[in-house]
Amino acid sequence: MSFVPGTPTATDNCDQDVTITYLGENKANGSCADDYTLTRTWKAEDNCGNTKTATQKITVRDTQDPVFVNFPLDITVECHTVPDPATPGGIDNCDLNVTVTYLGEIRQDGNCEDRYVLIRTWKVEDNCGHSKTAAQTITVEDTAPPVLTCPAVFTIECSDDFTPNGAGYATSTDNCDPDPTETYTDATLDGNCPDNYKIERTWKATDRCGNISTTCLQTITIEDTTPPVVPAHLISPSSVPMTSPNGAGYATSTDNCDPDPRRRSQMRHFQATVPITTRSSGHEGHGPLWKREYDL
User: 5, 6, 165, 276: most buried, per Cβ within 10 A?
Assistant: First the structure.
């Protein structure tokens, strides 16, 4: 900062118009750029050449702190929109080029990973070491739920895997959580037999701050289209009449879904024509074909 010299006056016993000349100033530096001393000298001279000098001492001190300009305001943001540190400015009464330094941030955790508070601090300093600090508070929230995508509608055989390993998993994305958790509940709707039915699988996704997505519904249709397997022929023991199942033998069957086809309340009707092997008086031969029907 510069100071304009003043204009002293002088009187003389004879000369009514004394000439005053400014001879200049001498600067003595102090402890910093804006702390110093100025010594200014003037000369008064009358019209007969008589002169006298005088000095003025100006002590310059910088005692004021600089101030910030355009300092960032406290804000509340979603966890995926946290801004980078701002760049505030600063001004000073003496220093025309103050220094603004970002001192960093402190994180204060909240009740989950994506809810917290950031405190960012800056310092502004002039060339005499006078400084001031200020902080911005950023409150970070997570209020957005994940976005859920359901697996496709699925139709499978009753013996197939209808868990998510077989029928598919829901997927989800979140604005902050890179790995939301997908869970489901099942409701069973009966069909026209025990092995024809539907599963309505309701999915939801939850992020690490407990935000829950809207649900989606996957329908899994389970069908039984495969008949039981019936043996090709039976052999009758010779000691039992061949005309009864005790003698001719019982049919057996296996099914891809039904563990005991004969015991189902809704019976399936099968017909098998089998040759009967006979034994009598040491002779063995084939008798007529018997047709026997079984409800399984």
Answer: 276
In the predicted model, is pLDDT for residue 273 greater than 80? no
Q: What is the mean pLDDT of residues 209-234?
A: 88
Query: How far apart (Å, rounded) are the C-alpha atoms in residues 222 and 196?
Result: 6
Q: Quick one: DSSP state of residue 77?
A: E
> Do the beta carbons of residue 131 and residue 197 sit within 8 Å?
no
* Rounded Cα–Cα distance for residues 250 and 55 (Å): 136
Domain that holds residue 160: 147-223
- Indicate whether this model's pTM tops 0.85: no
Residue of 242, 259, 263, 262 whose CA lies nearest to 251: 262
> Do 83 and 140 contact (CB within 8 A), yes or no?
no
- How many C-beta neighbours within 10 Å does residue 282 have? 5
In a domain, 16, yes or no: yes
